[in-house]
Specification:
The first copy, chain A, is of the alpha/beta class. Chain A has eight helices and ten strands. In chain A, helix 1 packs antiparallel against helix 4 and helix 2 packs across helix 3. The relative contact order of chain A is 0.09.
DNA sequence: ATAATATTGTTAAATATAAAACAAACTCGA
DNA sequence: TCGAGTTTGTTTTATATTTAACAATATTAT
């Protein structure tokens, strides 16, 4: 099963999780195959786009038949590396950090939060969801003695840049950033931003447009 | 100050909050004017893009001079309707709901969370951040007797669609959706999704690409 | 006041993304 | 087994977005 990316554009990659979720739902409904046309109607896309998206990674369908859902799910999981194991730490033990911790616990069996860090002494040296909350001063040592794949930045205000530098300097190669900070990273580090504040302003824009 | 949108494309709109944040920072640094070139270098964009983005809404700069930062901030706030007042409710009193409540408290003086709702009896009839947490059964009556602008969906699993229908049926015209649900809305309702799970899978994709 | 410099707004070109079109290949019922 | 109907993978066309180019206009120093 060849799934080597022909350097798929990011808009395509960002649609894959949506395909994955819909295909999982279909499988739960007991459906085993689907055509790009039927899937497109379910998802509100064009059939052409679905076929073209998938073909960036390979030809997984069959003429006259469609796509085998179970197989396609596996292919997408492979492309997205969903089933790899990911050891994560969360920086920030506020509600956001805790919420993310829950999110990961509920959604991704393969991802695990091993530790949470915070500067606030009131929050540290406690346990949340069986996870130890350490003080930031322990971060460096922790990263030295543990293999961590992903650092999750859940610091509310813009201490994000500082913290990002910190974890990168201690060997972290991927960051899931929930802070408002614009974090510039080198070529060997990947970053994915969840820009909650920007999302809110987009909503207020849409509201004002809608009211016109 | 004419800021009537010539139907700006969404990619442009989604960059505006980033401009806004950077301009605010510049102002705090005591800088009062900036050229598209300097701003582009700071933000990692092209100067051309900045000029063209802004020109969807009007000509706010001056040849040979650049942009007056304070004025430009006001213009962007006007376009995004940042300074309007927004009455919000949050559905879901878990950590995510609480985190969003904090986020709003800290970031947007103009947006206010008036109530939180949950199905879980253990979480209801309590107060968080001075906000009452009600049972879902009270939602309908609440929406009838209160003017709510935005319903924020912080329900973890996919009860999202049901809840969305609920609030829309009770007059809500805008939704900020943190649930995994794909919510289809009519033309008179606006929705903005924060797809945290999709973001995670995008990150795992980037990690695997980075390791190649 | 003038000229050299800076910088915009806007038009044109390039690139990226999405949709449509269609030949090739498979399916499935008779 | 055959033929009509499906549906893919892929090519072509259309649209959207970004970048480059540049004339027009303001600024600033002299």
């Amino acid at each position: 099963m060849q799934t080597l990316s022909k350097n798929a554009p990011m808009p395509v990659v960002r649609r894959l999780p949506k395909y994955h979720r819909n295909l999982k739902e279909l499988l739960e409904e007991g459906i085993t195959k689907i055509s790009s046309k039927d899937l497109s109607e379910r998802m509100g896309l064009t059939a052409s786009q679905i076929r073209q998206d998938l073909n960036y990674f390979g030809g997984f369908g069959q003429q006259g038949y469609g796509y085998n859902i179970e197989e396609l799910i596996k292919v997408i999981e492979d492309i997205l590396s969903i089933n790899n194991k990911y050891n994560c730490i969360i920086i920030g033990a506020g509600n956001l950090g805790k919420a993310i911790s829950n999110y990961i616990l509920n959604l991704y069996g393969n991802a695990k939060v091993l530790a949470i860090f915070d500067i606030d002494a009131d929050k540290t040296n406690k346990i949340f969801n069986d996870i130890n909350i350490y003080n930031m001063s322990e971060l460096k040592d922790y990263l030295k003695s543990n293999e961590i794949d992903i650092a999750i930045l859940a610091v509310p205000k813009s201490s994000g840049i500082e913290v990002a530098k910190d974890v990168i300097n201690n060997g972290i190669k991927s960051i899931w950033n929930f802070s408002t900070a614009d974090i510039a990273v080198g070529n060997d580090v990947v970053i994915e931003n969840v820009a909650i504040n920007e999302s809110f302003y987009t909503l207020t824009y849409l509201i004002s447009e809608n009211e016109k």
